Amino acid sequence: MGLPQPGLWLKRLWVLLEVAVHVVVGKVLLILFPDRVKRNILAMGEKTGMTRNPHFSHDNWIPTFFSTQYFWFVLKVRWQRLEDTTELGGLAPNCPVVRLSGQRCNIWEFMQG
């Protein structure tokens, strides 16, 4: 937890609002303009190479955009990014590390030993 608690919770609240608005607006647009949203999502998939995979069908994954699972996944990732950053003079993030013995732990646990 690299940020002080009040700063972290305020930033988490802001991220929650951003993701919620993103999902709501995306869902509304998906309902009102499904063809246009499909074209935009496919265009994004072209950039990443996802649409070139023969095992992916847009009919399978486009409906998952702006779903409840999508909301929780994006929120979790964005919140994790907040904890993985630090501010000048703040605590370092508690990143995972691997000891020379192969044992996995977090950096704070590693520094205690």
From TrEMBL:
Keywords: Membrane, Oxidoreductase, Selenocysteine, Thyroid hormones biosynthesis, Transmembrane, Transmembrane helix. The chain crosses the membrane at residues 12-33. The keyword Transmembrane applies. GO terms for molecular function: thyroxine 5'-deiodinase activity. The keyword Hydrolase does not apply. One of its GO terms (biological process) is thyroid hormone catabolic process. It comes from the Eukaryota. Responsible for the deiodination of T4 (3,5,3',5'-tetraiodothyronine). Predominantly monomer. Can form homodimers but homodimerization is not essential for enzyme activity. This is Iodothyronine deiodinase. It comes from Gorilla gorilla gorilla (Western lowland gorilla).
